[in-house]
Amino acid sequence: MIENLFIFISKPGFRVCYVCGREFGSQSLAIHEPQCLEKWRVENSKLPEELRRPLPRKPQVDIPTVSDSVCACASVG
Ligand SMILES: [Zn+2]
Does the pLDDT at position 31 exceed 80? Predict the structure, then answer.
């Protein structure tokens, strides 16, 4: 049961698109993300100016290596 819960919380190899929030395999996400962002920009540009949203920013929580994770924590903010 604990094993299942762990898989549910963090699916290995799956990552969430920061633009649309959907899950993709890391390979698929690399392809999807630029396309999704471009689509988002097109859709957003069609909106009236008052409804436009700021461009979603890529979160700085990429799979950290051991050395990177120290730097990432220190550089937040
Ligand atoms: Zn997406």
Answer: yes
Domain boundaries, the chain: 13-57
Residue 21 Ramachandran class (φ > 0 left, ψ -120 to 50 alpha, else beta): left
34 CA → ligand 1 middle, Å: 8
Distance 36 CA to ligand 1 centre (A): 5
CB 34 within 8 A of CB 18: no
Q: What is the pTM of this model?
A: 0.59
